[in-house]
Design a protein that fits this description.
17% strand, 452 residues, Aspartate Aminotransferase, domain 2, 15 helices, 6-stranded mixed sheet, binds pyridoxal-5'-phosphate, alpha/beta
């Protein structure tokens, strides 16, 4: 059987698809595995109780009987392609109440998870464009096309962006400045910062070959939170070049609010904000939320109609009452954020105990559900380290997958880091970090003994 180019693009094995299979197999295995590899949110009792309670209430929330309940209305009807209207209204009220953005229902569309949103947005703003300016000055006035990329202002970035373009890979990526910083008064930490000089000098930006700028904030994989100044600078560049700034807020404010640094969330017509219900604990509901200018929302709704008819309504049904009365925000502030902050503190302590005397640097934990570890001068690549850890029943994700748009063959740093999830329970974190400590210490010790 032969597949089209489109089919081949989406079915060819990639490093990351193999890795994801490994992670999936590990979960099915009967051997105990220290799963520090995936992006699944933690099981938090208070969170699950609230979702279960809300879910049960959906079945009998109407005096006219179960058949008129919210559960039946959501399950038995398509919404329009923009998404569940009651949830969109609840979100409009919520964002205007908390941020004063002056949104209307025309500014919000729903998608089947935010991964689905990135598929739409990266193909809307990256790929082949017919270029009016080129046409205007062209000698022969033939229609011409220009290829535009999505600019990632700070890599490492989210692995899931890598393969979403329908044709090719369209990224222009900027490598970070690496600053050594302290965390809670302790040394041994670093923080990535946007290299604005390199960004402003990118030929693709100056030549009009960038279609949008995109960053995750907090960032998956590093837990970095771009500062308000960095965000304002990116917004200014986006406006100057008349391209949108896409902010992936999967871990950000106001839900799940897994963010510990001092940061503000802004929106204007040139900003596309992407939210998700996944990291508050509902990844199986596949619900993404886009807040953007009405023109973008119209385009996303049209794509929803073709690809999905309409987005799923079940996550919307569960989240609507929680958004209407702000319980979603209380849940994020009082349960989700403190949970991950505690996990990050524990994981940092365990890592320092295990590797304090070795060249371990940890990215300053500022948010998200991961720690990003840098083993400077590690004698093997972290791809090989991944294999060694896997043999000992511990799964992490090696760094080289997190550089979409970068040729990592000559960038040593991209082979020296790992991402570890902090969503696991305390025992798994303890056992997993113990294995990482043993394996990494042995590697450095062996290399040192050979140097004498
Ligand atoms: C930064 C980031 N963006 C987007 C997504 C996609 O999330 P979902 O499609 O579950 O909303 C993820 C999932 O891990 C993520 O980490």
């Amino acid at each position: 059987m032969k597949f089209s180019k489109f089919g081949q693009k989406f079915t060819q094995p990639t490093g990351i698809s193999q890795l994801m299979d490994d992670l999936g197999d590990a979960l099915k295995s009967d051997q105990p595995v220290n799963m520090l590899g995936g992006g699944n949110p933690a099981k938090i009792d208070a969170v699950n109780e609230l979702f279960l309670e809300t879910y049960k209430a959906l079945g009998n929330d109407n005096d006219a009987g179960e058949t008129n309940s919210s559960a039946i209305i959501s399950m038995a009807n398509y919404s329009n392609p923009q998404g569940d209207a009651a949830f969109i209204d609840a979100l409009v009220g919520f964002f205007n109440r908390h941020y004063d953005w002056n949104l209307t229902a025309e500014n919000i569309a729903l998608t089947n998870g935010s991964q689905n949103a990135f598929f739409y947005l990266f193909n809307l703003f990256g790929g082949a464009f017919s270029d009016n300016k080129l046409d205007e000055h062209s000698q022969d006035k033939e229609s011409q096309s220009i290829d535009k990329s999505i600019l990632l202002p700070l890599t490492p970035e989210y692995i899931g962006y890598s393969d979403v373009h329908v044709e090719g890979q369209h990224f222009a990526a900027v490598l970070p400045h690496i600053d050594e910083v302290t965390h809670d008064g302790e040394a041994g930490f670093f923080k990535y910062r946007v290299d604005f000089e390199a960004l402003e000098n990118l030929p693709a930006l100056k030549e009009g070959r960038i279609g949008a700028i995109c960053c995750s904030r907090p960032t998956n994989p590093t837990g970095n939170v771009l500062t308000d100044e960095e965000m304002a600078h990116l917004a200014e560049i986006a406006k100057r070049y008349e391209i949108p700034l896409i902010i992936d807020n999967a871990y950000g404010m106001p839900f799940p609010n897994i963010i510990y640094s001092d940061a503000q969330l802004s929106w204007d017509n040139n900003t596309i904000l992407c939210f998700s219900l996944s990291k508050i604990g509902l990844p199986g509901m596949r619900t993404g939320i886009i807040v953007a200018d009405a023109k973008v929302i119209e385009a996303v709704s049209a794509m929803n109609a073709v690809v999905n008819l309409a987005p799923t309504r079940f996550g919307a049904a569960i989240a609507t009452p929680l958004v209407n009365d702000d319980r979603i925000k209380q849940l994020a502030d009082n349960e989700i954020k403190p949970f991950y902050q505690k996990q990050a503190t524990l994981a940092v302590k365990l890592l320092k105990d295990a590797l304090g005397d070795y060249p371990l640097m940890i990215h300053k934990p500022e948010g998200a559900i991961f720690l990003w570890l840098w083993f400077k001068g590690l004698p093997i690549s972290t791809l090989e380290l991944y294999e060694r850890l896997k043999e000992k029943g511990t799964l992490i994700v090696p760094s080289e997958y997190f550089f979409p748009g970068v040729d990592v063959s000559n960038y040593q740093h991209a082979h020296e880091c790992i991402r570890m999830s902090i969503a696991a329970d305390e025992q798994t974190l303890t056992d997993g970090i113990k294995v990482i400590g043993e394996v990494v210490r042995e590697l450095y010790d062996e290399a040192n003994s050979q140097n004498y």
